[in-house]
From TrEMBL:
It comes from the Bacteria. Signal peptide: none annotated. InterPro entries: BrxC, Thioredoxin-like_sf. It comes from Terribacillus aidingensis. This is Bacillithiol system protein YtxJ. Pfam families: BrxC.
Length: 111
C-alpha cells in the first residue's frame, strides 16, 4: 500500500478521524539520511496493510511543528510516528528507520 501525502492540518485531522492506527513519516526532501529512510518506508509499504502517510517537512512545516507540539514529541527529520487512537504510541528517527524495525512494531502492535 503506497503512502499517501498529507500537506496540511485539515488532511491530518481527516486521517485521525478515519484511521484507528497508521504510520506517518516526516520526510526532508533535501536530506540524504531522510532519502534512505524513505526507501525503507517505501519497501515496508509493499508488505503492510496498515495505512501509511508521508509529510514533506519543507512543504508542510506548519503541520510538522503542530504535530510535534500537540503530541509533545520532539521534531526530527526523518522521523516515523506510529499513531493509535489519536495518540503516538511509538516513534523513531534517522538511521533507526528500517523496514524490519517498522515491521516489528506492527507485529507488536497487532498482538
Amino acid at each position: 500500500m503506497e503512502a499517501k501525502v498529507i500537506q496540511n492540518k485539515e488532511e491530518f485531522q481527516d486521517v485521525l478521524n478515519r484511521e484507528a492506527a497508521f504510520y506517518l513519516l516526516k520526510h526532508s526532501l533535501t536530506c540524504p539520511i531522510s532519502a534512505a529512510a524513505k526507501q525503507e518506508y517505501d519497501r515496508f509499504s509493499l508488505e503492510t496493510q496498515l495505512p501509511l502517510y508521508t509529510l514533506y517537512v519543507q512543504e508542510a512545516r506548519e503541520l510538522s511543528n503542530s504535530i510535534a507540539e500537540l503530541y509533545a514529541v520532539k521534531h526530527e527529520s526523518p522521523q516515523v510516528l506510529l499513531f493509535e487512537n489519536n495518540q503516538i504510541i511509538w516513534n523513531t528517527s534517522h538511521y533507526e528507520i528500517k523496514e524490519e524495525v517498522l515491521r516489528e512494531q506492527v507485529l507488536r502492535f497487532n498482538k
